[in-house]
Amino acid sequence: MELHPKFRLNGTAYSTKNLLTVAQTWSKEADAEQKKLGAFLLDWLSDIPTIQVQTSGSTGTPKTMEMPKAAMRASAERTAAFFSLSPGDTALLCLPLDYIAGKMMLVRAMVLGLSLDMIPPKTKLSLGTKTYDFGALIPLQAQHNLEQLHQIKTLLIGGAPINTSLRKELATIHNNCVETYGMTETLTHVATRPVTYPATSFKVMPDVRCDVDDENCLTLMVPYISNDIMRTNDVVELIDKTSFRLLGRRDFVINSGGKKIYPEQLEETLAEVLDGPFFFCGFPDETLGEKLVLLVEADTTEKARIQQLVTKVFEADKHHIPKAVFCLETFVYTPSGKLDRKGTKAVVKGS
Predict the structure, then answer these.
(1) 153/214 same-domain check
(2) Cis peptide before 277 (omega within 30 of 0)
(3) Are residues 195 and 317 in the same domain?
(4) Nearest to residue 166, comparing CAs of 204, 140, 194, 191?
(5) Is 55 part of any domain?
(6) 178 in a domain, yes or no?
(7) Which of 162, 180, 181 is nearest to 171 (CA)?
(8) CB-based contacts of 11: which residues, under 8 Å, 6+ apart?
(9) Is the pLDDT of residue 57 over 70?
(10) How many domains are there within the chain?
């Protein structure tokens, strides 16, 4: 794989030969991120036509898959066209290289000729006084770096849902903040929407088409990646072949007394009045099949107050009032920083 002549990494220009040499050194470094950087560059610059990528495990067991480098290059080129990126533009990589979002930011820089700064993928970032044309963060990073976000001209937010309070804040302070929809199989974003309050529908990228299956789960046709239909576990309201409204994960749907409840919809409403991490889920119930339960990352002394608050919020529909509230000192999170709903639920069941 040849490098774009304008590609820079942390201010340094590299030929393919030189980058291979330093990548071999980096791959043996003690620093974990430097080691991952070296290993990925060696894979990318090799003659092997595919790259191994790993899913985050936020909705199931993490798995490894092979993705064609040609598809990754095509994805990078479409990102450039969509976001008007040009050779020499500056970009920020502050996501871990373990997963596709970090890998694709590096690929975009090498393919498009971006000047990429790579900094530690921490929750709290240190941008100094530098500004960037392009960057991507997860919501947790955005939440903890609000005062620095103006330093990124085009800011992508993805990898997890944006809660209501953060959505309101971003809509106010950043005029070019974009929420993305995608997954490992789609090489990150295949649909976007501006971060506004209230939220609008997602619109797929050019050449991508969307539909639904028999269970109203989103399906995608992404011709630059595969000729096969990609199937997701995301239940959507299809607006047309290019746009959709996300309702929630099929894995998370709660069937309580024959009524389907999408926890993400309830969480969006409750986030208006309840701060901190929380989520709804279903627990087995002899009468209802599943009963609606609320898990909150909070001290147990808060339980009564939270129960009273949530009852008031959902008093118009008794089906949306949880049958129980559980407070946990801390939730379970994946290595990429996403909430592990199944793991957290298992902790509550085990206790």
Answers:
(1) no
(2) no
(3) no
(4) 140
(5) yes
(6) yes
(7) 162
(8) 115, 117
(9) no
(10) 3
244 and 257 part of one domain = no
**β-strands 259-261, 254-256 pairing:** antiparallel
Check: pTM over 0.85? Answer yes or no: yes
Question: Distance between CA 82 and CA 20 in Å, rounded?
Answer: 30
For residues 66-83, average pLDDT:
97
Strands (E), the chain: 8-9, 12-13, 50-54, 64-68, 90-93, 115-118, 132-137, 152-157, 177-183, 188-194, 202-204, 209-212, 217-221, 230-240, 243-249, 254-256, 259-261, 278-285, 289-297, 324-328
Question: How high is the pLDDT of residue 303?
Answer: 96
* Judgement on whether residues 185 and 281 belong to the same structural domain of the protein: no
Spatial distance between the Cα atoms of 208 and 94, rounded to a whole number of angstroms: 27
Tokens of 157: 């937010």
Which residues lie closer than 8 Å to 317 by C-beta, 6 or more apart? none
Q: Answer whether residue 279 shows pLDDT above 70.
A: yes
Tens digit of each residue's pLDDT (9 = 90 or more) over 88-97: 999 999 999 9
- The 10 Å CB-count burial string (b at 16+, else e) for 159-193 is bbbbbbebbbbbbeebeebbbbbbbbbbbbbbbbb
Tell me, what CATH number does 259's domain have? 3.30.300.30
Beta strands at 115-118 and 8-9: parallel, antiparallel or unpaired = parallel
Q: By three-state DSSP, how is residue 79 classified?
A: helix
User: Domain limits at 261?
Assistant: 253-350
Interval 174-196: pLDDT, tens: 999 999 999 999 999 999 999 99
Helical pair 16-26 and 32-44, crossing angle rounded to 10 deg: 140
Report pLDDT for 334: 83
139-170 pLDDT, tens per residue?
989 999 999 999 999 999 999 889 888 999 99
Give the model's pLDDT for residue 58: 54
